[in-house]
Design goal:
It is built from 11 helices and 8 strands. It has about 325 residues and is α/β, with parallel strands linked by helices. An 8-stranded parallel β-sheet has the order 1-2-3-4-5-6-7-8, covered by helices on one side.
């Protein structure tokens, strides 16, 4: 894993703005030092307020923290990459990012920060029937601008999210600075074993988002209640055997297979629970049984949600 990056991180997606600062402070009190943010989450300014408060209270220093953010789709053109990065840094109240990721391999037309921020998916949300407006920006041009962020010291590490095997192969042919991280959806219903193995062969670390599976997607109507992993037999059996909760078993499975994980919760007791996964180890039999739950079930799929929510059919996975 990247030097200095805690394997267990805290995801900031879907935390309401008015709760974010308090949640960040509570997460730091609980022991989190790795925070996974993004411009598109719409709460980076509040995240920065929480970080500043925690530093002011003497809970941590900036150097104790690992802060990740992500380049949004509308800033893919090389001339806008540094602008987007600096906006995230300003909102977060930091003078460098530990890791900056391309959020999706999808380039959308530029929306000025003063016009709308975060820019969202559709080009003009105020116009009825507005849809995504694609931009002709090749990924290699965006990556070169990401490399420039490392050269200038704004960012320590760069990487990508939501890339498939083909895109990763392609990236490795032209990258002057190799990606340090691949962030993908992964949980026992979507094990992504081949992609994770490929990343390892290239020396690229992997972060699994949505490590608990469907839990993050119920409120978005992107998953059915019956798709929860928490009640599946292999997870329940392992939880009973180790005196842990099903969630802790799922998170341990993610860490034990070599990925970083970024679960999210607003409850302090759940924060501590999600971190308390280092005092047990799943057996090979338990790991295999949990992995056998794989259904290639992807909850976060632009090929599904983009058409339904944003009027544009734009799959990135086959």
């Amino acid at each position: 894993m990247l030097t200095g990056m805690p394997r267990s991180g805290f995801g900031l997606w879907k935390i309401p703005q008015d709760e974010t600062a308090d949640t960040v402070v509570e997460a730091i009190r609980a022991g989190y030092r790795h925070f996974d943010s993004a411009a598109d989450y719409g709460n980076e300014k509040q995240t920065g307020e929480g970080i500043a408060r925690a530093i002011g209270e003497g809970l941590v220093t900036r150097d104790d923290l690992w802060i990740t953010s992500k380049l949004w789709n509308t800033f893919h053109a090389p001339e806008h990459v540094e602008e987007a990065c600096r906006k995230s840094m300003d909102d977060l109240g930091v003078d460098y990012l530990d890791l900056y990721l391309i959020h999706f391999p999808i380039a959308l037309e530029y929306v000025p920060i003063e016009t709308r921020y975060p820019p969202e998916w559709v080009h003009d949300p105020d116009t009825p029937g507005s849809s995504m407006k694609l931009a002709k920006v090749p990924l290699h041009a965006t990556w070169a601008a990401m490399e420039a962020l490392v050269d200038t010291g704004l960012v320590k590490n760069i990487g990508v999210c939501n890339y498939n095997s083909g895109l990763l192969h392609d990236l490795m042919t032209y990258a002057r600075i190799k990606p340090a991280m691949l962030q993908i959806e992964s949980h026992p219903y979507l094990t992504q074993e081949r992609l994770i193995r490929l990343a390892g062969n290239y020396g690229v670390d992997v972060t699994a988002f949505s490590p608990l599976g469907a839990q993050s997607y119920f409120e978005l109507d992107m998953a059915a209640e019956g798709e929860s992993l928490l009640g599946t037999a292999p997870v329940m059996v392992a939880a009973s055997a180790h005196g842990k909760t099903p969630a802790q078993v799922l998170l341990r499975w993610g860490v034990q297979r070599g990925t970083a994980i970024i679960p999210k919760t607003s409850k302090p007791e759940r924060m501590r629970e999600n971190l308390d996964i280092d005092d047990f180890e799943l057996s090979q039999v338990e790991m295999a049984a949990i992995s056998s739950l794989n259904q290639n079930r992807r909850f976060n799929d632009p090929g599904t949600f983009a058409e339904a929510a944003f009027g544009t059919f734009h799959p990135i996975y086959d």
